[in-house]
Amino acid sequence: MEHIRPAKEQDLPYLYEICLRTALSGLDGTDYFHDPFCVGHYYAAPYLFFDPSLCFIAVDEHNKPSGYIVGTSDTASFNKWMNSSWLPPLQTQYEQVDTFKSEYEEEIIRLISKGPGEGVWEHVGYPGHLHIKSP
Question: Are 82 and 116 in contact (CB under 8 A)?
Fold first, then answer.
């Protein structure tokens, strides 16, 4: 039986692994990325560093992380932080990448390059957002 607990920094490798294994709308993206970390760089890891109190891990009966919930209660502040603090080193890392294993990898690296902009959710009364993943 699984249970959910607060995420810890030690869970970071599992966030990346789970994010990759669910990268294609819940399907395994392992074979579609040269860089297995690029999806997690955008959709999972930054939340743990921005506000760890809003990050949770589902663990299986062996206490191994098997899913996650990561989020922010303030999307506008999160996006500002992503653009000013989290993404610049990644943008430098990926700026020379011009060969992609798939259109999915190209899309993620383009997202990293441009950073998050204003989303529709900020304009319809939802100040926060979250990602839930479980393979």
Answer: yes
Instruction: Indicate yes or no: pTM above 0.85.
Output: yes
Is residue 1 predicted with pLDDT exceeding 60?
Answer: no
Q: Are 32 and 41 in contact (CB under 8 A)?
A: no
Give the pLDDT of residue 121.
Answer: 58
* Structural domains for the chain: 3-133 (3.40.630.30)
Residue appearing with tokens 């993620």: 108
